[in-house]
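REVIEWER CHECKLIST
Item 1: Sequence provided? yes
Item 2: Single chain? yes
Item 3: Sequence as submitted:
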Amino acid sequence: MNSELTGILASFIITLLIGIPLGKYLAKMFAGEKVWTDILKPIENGIYKLSGINPNEPMDWKRFLKAMMVINSLWIVYGFFVLMYQDKLPLNPDGNAGMSADLAFNTILSFVANCNLQHYSGESGVTYFTQHFILMFLHFTSAATGIAAAVGVFKAFRDKTTNDLGNFWNYFVRSITRLLLPLSIVIALILTFNGTTSSYEGKDQFISLQGDTVHVSRGPAAQMIAIKHLGTNGGGWFGANSAHPLENPNYVTNMTEIIAQMIIPIAMVLAFGYFIRRKKLGWVIFGVMTIGMLMLMIPTISSELGGNPAIARMGISQTSGAMEGKEVRIGPAATAYWSTLTTIVSTGSVNGMHDSTMALTGLWQLLGMMINSFFGGCGVGVLNYVIYVIIAVFISGLMVGRTPEFLGHKVEAREVKIAALVTLLSPFLILAGTAISSYVFNHYGNADWATKPSAWLNNPGYHGFSEMLYEYTSSNANNGSGFEGLGDGNIFWSVTTGLIIILGRFLPIIGPVAIAGLLAQKKFIPESAGTLRTDTVTFGAMTFAVIIVLNALSYFPALALGPIAEYFSMLK
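Item 4: Structure as written out by the authors:
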């Protein structure tokens, strides 16, 4: 057990050793300062020339968002039709069929939105062509979209008074050429040399110990797994995701993948402080996020190492902790660590089955996605945190009787309204979706409607409610993990989660970019003795309190009906 905890500590230390200098590098690179990756400029200039883009053209917040939305809309149309007709395209050695319209709708929205919710089984649901030219391609572009949006906000807050958020295409291309692609190559090589499959051959065949003929899917998985974690995407090559032995063969690959999915979220937080020349603010935000992460992680690890009380009552020893749904080669502690990080940074990959974790672990997983600002995904974690900062600034200003200000700009009614709408959006989407699905399940459970709702849940009690709540929470948070006791492979779930995915992705990006653009246009106000400083521990604590109170008020009733009720029922 001590070795498992040592492995967790080592993973986190290595993550910080990479993430902190990476944050400094990103701040310099996006600010246009001289960095060693300037050697890639000729490649970037070739991309701009081929695309007819002027990377130095300034953009206000409206043009910035227009560019982002237009290119993402194009990818939705392109990917939708490729998924439907993938069986007629090359690189399909296993003869996988094309997707139905509803499944293609859900899948393309999910991957464009960096959610990567999979209502299909990876190795049998898509072809090698689709894995490469749709899903893996979108792993890069969706992560770069979030990073580019965050950098636009950074620039708005750095400049005293400006209409220029920078050029979306410049940030977007650099995110791929100077960050995602080089690191993905390194990670893919580590995975390949540790046994992750990277072949283009079709299914392999062998005789098992029982004498059965077994067909095992393979393919160039290492390449996709590298960017799926680095870009906090999460969609697995195999249906079992990183619990699959060919996707995550050993503890070395397990550490590599968990480190990969945390380094950019951490780096972006610190890059914010360095970019706007307020390093202390970046470290305060980092501290708040780290405390929030630990408050979710420590009880999760404790819950999984404590074992299942129902099994304990049977007199069965659980010295290794709760092993249901865990891979023996990884263990419950490392699985608990992964489950915390994958839900707070919106990766959504799994190295064990979340549906089998303890009730309180499910609670912490849900809270990590509901808060969605303790590091968060690539770039968007900072954007989500900015919304809480605006609300905290507004409340603090009311408390001290001053007009609220943030980084030298007055926060007025328009910005607060946008922040309030974004804050209310998540609970509305999650709770409304869960309420609708609960109604459908209870009232149409015996009807042949939407492929029999009665077959949705393997556990129709408290845990069944948690399964539905988790699905919508994961969709809204662009996470993609799931309580897989839920039968989600039907029209109802594909359409409803698809709509929530797209709304939950882009409105929380549009909101912070609009707020930053509006604030940047205002006259800069120099700091004075009465200025509320936002780079202090006190304000960090205020922001943390706002995060906790808002999410507790929004979600406690639903959590009480699901994981909390399940926990107390297990103690009977």
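Item 5: Key structural point noted by reviewer: DSSP finds 18 helices and four strands in the chain.
Item 6: Recommendation: ____
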